[in-house]
Amino acid sequence: MKADPAAQLRLLDLQSLDSRADQLRHQRDTLPEIAEIEELTHHQRELEAQRIDQQMIVDDLEVERAKVDSDVESVKARQARDQQRIDQGLIANPKDLQHMQAEMESLQRRITSLEDQELEVMEQLEEAQATLTQLAEQAEAAQVRLTDVTAARTHKTGAIDTELAGVEAERAPLAAELPADLLALYDRLRASKGGVAAAELRARECGGCRLSIDAAELGVIRAAAQDDVVRCEECQRILVRTAESGL
């Protein structure tokens, strides 16, 4: 392939712009905020799952506390009725009275047992509610952090996109000036060579693969016409000759 030496030199400018654009895209896609947002989102999902489980525990304890409280009130009401009957002298038979007093003692033991159970449930409920509150606080803190990190990512992405747009605007007229066949070769090589298609031959070294050109190959390059498009024997990238090539 042949191309005007000036067009080959402009390839280096195009490559510089494309490399900068690639760097900007990589920077945009690998912002540390992106990974943190993913971690925070995952953490939020875990917290929500824990919150749901903890809320179920709290709800169950609330039901249990209400049941025990109802049982206590029911036994106390029965105890009060029996005591009222005794106080009013409605039980005249000594044997029935003895039986009633024994039942009153049994009711008191039942009340004491239920009150102890109620106290235990209330302690468990207090701990469960504290855990639920802690999960809510953690979720709120995670959301605040997520909002801040998302804003930072948006700001950085905007700045990168602005710079990238400038690079692309500068690239368009430069690419339009190049011969179609040279540009097509350049684009193919960019796709297969990690984004670097054209490199300067500087001090007898390929700027693409960074390998020194051996004497025999240098002889071939030295003998090539100025408008010949030279390729690196090792990496096949386009070698652009300049005054610094060492030929």
Written account of the structure:
The chain is mainly alpha-helical. It has helices at residues 5-29, 32-87, 94-177, 180-192, 215-223; strands spanning 198-202, 205-206, 230-231, 238-241. α1 packs antiparallel against α3 and α2 (32-87) packs antiparallel against α3. The longest helix is centred in the middle third of the chain and has 84 residues, at 94-177. It starts with a helix and ends in a 6-residue tail after the last strand.
Features:
247 residues; mainly alpha; Helix Hairpins; 4-stranded mixed β-sheet; 5 helices; 4 strands; 76% helix; 5% strand; rod-shaped
List low-confidence stretches: none
Number of helices: 5
- What is the CATH T-level topology of the largest domain? Helix Hairpins
The CATH architecture classification of the largest domain is Orthogonal Bundle
Please write the string of helix (H) and strand (E) elements.
Answer: HHHHEEHEE
General shape = rod-shaped
Widest beta sheet: strand line-up:
2-1-4-3
Specify the structural class: mainly alpha
Summarize model confidence as the mean pLDDT. 94
Distance between the termini: 20 Å
Rg over C-alpha atoms, rounded to the nearest angstrom? 42 Å
Q: Beta-strand level of the residues, as a percent range?
A: 5-15%
Largest sheet: 4 strands, mixed
Number of domains: 2
**CATH structural class of the largest domain:** Mainly Alpha
Task: Provide a short characterization of the protein structure.
The chain has helices spanning 5-29, 32-87, 94-177, 180-192, 215-223; strands at 198-202, 205-206, 230-231, 238-241. It folds into 2 domains: 5-20 and 179-241, no CATH class; 31-170, Orthogonal Bundle (Helix Hairpins), CATH 1.10.287. Helix content is 76%, strand content 5%.
